[in-house]
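hiii, so i know i said id send this last week but things got crazy w the move. better late than never?? heres the sequnce for the chain we talked about at the cafe, plus the structure i predicted for it. fair warning i was half asleep when i ran it
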Amino acid sequence: QVQLVESGGGLVQAGGSLRLSCAASGRTFSSYTMGWFRQAPGKEREFVAAINWSGGSTYYADVVKGRLTISRDNAKNTAYLQMNSLKPEDTGVYYCAGDAQVLGIMMRNGRRYRYWGQGTQVTVSS
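okay and structure toks below
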């Protein structure tokens, strides 16, 4: 089992940048697919980005392509979400998720991940 802790959220003006981190406990992080999801007030949780165990494959929601970048450092047991050119519609609670059994097209499906962090708030002002 792995425990996930997000950090790096905050308040930023439109056009600004933030980098979210997801620190994982346990020795199996390097085998886990990692995903980022977000939930805006009154809306359902949505997929943002995912990365496979090696970092060789990444997937993005169309609305964030070219602005957000997912990465990982297996030596540090940490996944990242670099967010640039932020928009007010990026506001929400951002969650990281992990699971070694999530592969391929399943990486976009939040219901496939067993392990979740507590979330970090991102607020983008206009």
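btw The radius of gyration is 13 Å. thought thatd interest u
miss u guys!!
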